[in-house]
Request: fold
Amino acid sequence: MSNTSEQKLPSRQQTPALSAIKNIADSRRITTGLLLALGGSIAFSGKAIIVKLAYRHGVDAVTLIMFRMLFALPVFAVMAWWASRGKAALTRRDWLGVLWLGFTGYYLASFLDFAGLAYISASLERLILYLNPTLVMLLGFVLYKRRVLARQLTGTAISYCGVVLVFGHELTLQSLGQRADTAWGALLVLLSAISYAVYLVYSGEMVRRLGALRLVGLASTVACLLCVLQFGVLRPLSAAWAVAPEVIWLSLINATLCTVAPVLMVMMAIERIGASMASQAGMVGPMSTILMGVVILGEPFTAWVAAGTVLVIAGIFVFSRARA
Reply:
């Protein structure tokens, strides 16, 4: 009996230690996941700032997005290859799905966003794009008759009021011609958000079949090729050599730090803390864009912009809590 007790005693003494080690590991995983989610959101929000800086050097949207996607293409191609190792080959249906999602989710959404940024502030652009979850809900209701909760509608209404507030404030500071440009830019960015929402609605089945990393790599590669092809069709090759050197290195930063890095960071964050917590951490995005817009671009930060931002973030928070 005594020998048995003595043998069991060490394991009992190790239990609190093992539990403490597990708690430390869990805490580190959560901390790392939150930092990755925050970093990914901030890095992605810098995209608009980089685009606005590049526009100051006389480049157009077609050329600018070509450079961004050209620099990002090798990374996404390697990502697609890495995620496809040992997996079954894609069927014809799979390839059609990848082409469709690459067109809507990354090519069209990105191009419309770049085009819209030529006319509106980075702050307004980010707030419009932040409405994406509500657009996914509306598309789900229209296409699949999915149930919409009252709290989701409340959150949607609050967020849209915030965007309208910032949009209306920008219009009051502009002349008639500038108002038309702002309205056009806001429409382009809204269409960009709708295009990406279409991608999210239709990507669910593809993600389950191919895996998130493989689908992102393949669809992004398709988008990169489409952007390069678009430039070849619409612009002479000499236009690529005529851009200012600043456009080249800004596009390189955009492709790496504001495109590839956020995708990987958010996916790693979701792996550690789940999609819900990663989404909550992503709420820092609009504020980081506005802050960088004020500091780097010299965009005005007024009480109207602050109020609109608070409404958008609060609305998305209410919406996400209802969905959870």
Summary: Residues 32-323 form one domain. Residues 2-55 form the longest helix (54 residues). Residues 4 and 36 are 48 Å apart (CA to CA).
